[in-house]
Amino acid sequence: MAQFDMSVDKLHAYRPDLPVPEDLTAFWQGSVAEAREHDIAVRTERVDNRLRLVDTYDLTYAGWGGEPIKAWLSVPAGTVGPLPTVVQYIGYSGGRGFPFNATLYAQAGYAHITMDTRGQSYSNGGWDVTPDATPGGDNHAPGQLTRGITDPHTYYFRRAYIDAFRALEAAAALEQCDASRMIALGGSQGGGLTIAAAGLAGLHGIQLAGAAPDVPFLCDFPRATTLVNSLPYGEIVRYLAGFRDRVDQVFRTLSYFDGAILGRWASAPTLFSVGLMDQTCPPSTCFAAYNWWGNDTVSDKRVEIYPFNEHIGGGDHQRQVLLDWVRERLG
């Protein structure tokens, strides 16, 4: 696939005038308050990860509706005190997988939390996974992207975004983690969850040391769904091809979950990455979130651009960039 989106100079200037719901702040403040009615209920149990230099714990905490969310907590072997912490979110269809997979940042000396994504994990399996126990509402296309999409209160990503935000609160409750030095990061859907978690953190006065969304999903829905019809945005396209009378209703729901809107609340330094040949998360949609990040209040921001890469973006090159960036901010 050749480069198909805007030129780089236009990408840097692209700030779409997206419709912002008048009750957006109240909706998310109310959602967080409702989640906080349940104790965070953090539990950890050491597991055998088959590794000598990293200790891994099966972490459980209360997400949306008080439902138990699974995660891995990995730390350098023998760690007893609080460490600077990386909270990682996973791409669409994936989950936390096996405990020996989620250790990169523990190997670098940090506490590393990898959140399982409710109702997913089907692309990589792994240990005990997190179901999505809450009913999703109306009919939906295959996948999670249209589940409950007729109302923001029933939409799947309301639950997933709250789970991601509560992962930060769970980290703050762990003796292995230093809540004053915490970075959120992830790629694709994990990038979208990173933006949502960082935005909700900013809305609620929680200062992160950084947030790093790679090739982020869940941004600028109006452009994404009309520029490409590849999956997973194609799930919305297929849904609306059948439910022709629900276009306005669906895009109103999506406006509550758009990373190019929620990221405006973020206050953390940020590092984005974009692949200019990415048909899964088109470059302009990623730049929409990047350019609106912090609503012009965050100066410590940069984007890594990979001109000849699709959705993999920078791959291991970007992971090396991230390791350096995390070290600069966490030590």
From TrEMBL:
Superkingdom per UniProt: Bacteria
Residues given in the record as substrate binding sites: Y92
Pfam families noted in UniProt: AXE1 (PF05448)
Domain Acetyl xylan esterase: 1-327
Record GO biological process: polysaccharide metabolic process
Signal peptide stretch: none
SUPFAM superfamilies tied to this protein: alpha/beta-Hydrolases (SSF53474)
Catalytic machinery residues: S188, D278, H311
Protein name: Acetylxylan esterase
Organism: Candidatus Avipropionibacterium avicola
